[in-house]
Structures
1.
Amino acid sequence: MTARKRVIVLFLDGVGLGPDDAAINPLATDAYPTLHALLEGSRLVADTGRLSTGAAELVPTDANLGVPGRPQSATGQATIVTGLNAAQCLGEHYGPWPDARVRTILNESSIFRRLADSGLSPYFCNAYPQRYFDAVQCGRRLLSAIPYAVTVGGQQLLTYDDICSGRALSADFTNQAWRDELGYLDAPVYTPYEAGCVLWQISQPYDFVFFEHWQTDLLGHAGDRDAAVALLCRFDGFLAGLLSVADLDHTLIIVTSDHGNVEDCSHGKHTTNPAMTLLLGAHRQAAAARIADLTDFAPIILDCLRGAL
């Protein structure tokens, strides 16, 4: 049986490549053994630049997209999941939530819809609590760009039942927040390493899997460097678990972001630094050669799954 070609995107909101200064940049520390090994001792900082190692490709990725101002989440995320320069289409960076203009772009070009229309199987593996759906239903909040793009592709957003059945993960990697903050006391809780293994199991029926983590952006806005280090340690363990079980000969793993923020905890604002992109597994070198800015991800994903990369 031919192994399935697969792309997994691990999206970390608000992670750029910033100064090599551990006092303000949580990525400038040596607290992450998995990332340290992948990068052969180099750090996820601006001075590292493009880097190719035996296991990874690091690609500083332009999130400014030729548009003045600080990049924002709605246009940045829409660009990643469509391949269209949403900020340029609007004439501005816009966010955090998509307005009618951004939703139009997502309606037309969501990669989740395009993959489904091509007979491929995309899957967004994040689950949401009932209070999230209630807030959307009554108009107190909008879907952000990525879950909106998912619904355009025909997938219903996942729920607590999917968490319990092992079909979904929470955005905090381990599901612990579902117990501690949301009151779901029966939610399964994993170590970060176990959660990475669970993600691989979740991915098995699908060609394309997308996982979204947004707390990095919140901690950047809070300027909480120490909490960001702790959070990124959890991500490091999560990535270790995924890599321990993934079929890297047939799977491309893309770790990327929509804009900078947490890499400079000195001011609490988005940055104009390049977004962090890390490529692992199959076709990583060919993919890295094609990445310059956020518009490049959707075409690469489509080509990889169609055997054209």
2.
Amino acid sequence: MNTIAINGNKRNEVGKKATKAVRSSNSIPCVLYSSAKENIHFHTTEAEVRNLVFTPEFKVAELNIDGVQVNAILKDIQFHPVKDNIIHIDFLQLVEKHPVIVEIPLKTKGSSPGVKIGGKLMQSIRKVKVKTVPEKLVNELFIDISSMELGQSLRIKDIIIPEGIEVMQNGSIPVVSIEVPRALKSAAAAEK
């Protein structure tokens, strides 16, 4: 599991005025939600969270809040509507044996015969919503495209799912397909 270390300082005051003061000091107000303990309000900098937020990969945040180490996932993030900078982050603490719902990146595996003869691989879903316990979390899921011919598609039910992970989306949703390009369509039509 990929982890990113993030340092933060606890906030004693919460509310509009306190949050505005945190933002004016170039920090990001954050909340760590936990089912085991009470919620922790803290602040950190954009440099600390950059590698967690601006990546297509799934990573676990290893939060260090005033010396207390906690593993968490990024639950929600808010951006400024004009400036596009981060204005608030919510984290969810990972508690052992307590299931969480997360979105994990989906990658293709293998090489398709349909692509080799000129088809175009189209991936319509890049992340899959799953439910699992923190011990079973994975960085990415895979779907095997090595048997796909022109015009075929694979669905969510075809994803290779490790043990202990439950997919929370409908199994019939298409994930990847091999489109037949116009040149091959027109060549097939000319043969008829």
3.
Amino acid sequence: MKNKTILITGGTSGVGKEMVTHFTKLGYDIYALGRNSDKVNFPCKSVDISNESEIINFINEIDNIDILINNAAIYQRSEYDNIKQSDINSVIDINLKGSIMVTLHSITKMKRGRIININSVAGLSGIRNQSLYSASKAGLKVFMDSLSQELIEKGILISNIHPGGINTELWNSGNKYPGDVTKLLDPTDIINTVDYIIGLSDNVVVKDITIFPTNEWH
């Protein structure tokens, strides 16, 4: 799979940033999208994935995509009576609509290959005070489950990874993790899972992988 082209969204922080570094070292050709392109030391395009015209313009610059990794997402945790219309718009526009639009336009540059979605355990079962985030991730899973039935005939295989909590800069003084952060998943745990999927034979598809840190269970 070396010298293949990978498109990674959310590539300037957290797991996405680590994936860009990892796959670049392995010799893949990387296209990365992210909101903080000025804060990384590798080529990355600032594209608002809630803006379809920006997505189209970027995808048109790419000749071929072998692997799409939908990693971009925003996280929100709040009680129901604190949710505002602006929160609904931002979470759904990025996590659901944005990932859908990136996927649909990326398919036009894919002959075969894989689409790997970094989803969440919140997309499998609702989590208290994460109703909006859970809804966005559940919607993405069902969309991908449906789309996979169309694309599998074209040799494009879709996999969903559903991690529990990951030890990244997401957890900070303004968004405290309710437990021991050191026991959370490491970004390398997600990267190893992506490596596993990419390394599978072309006739094998993994639909869903759920991974938890040992201090969580939903």
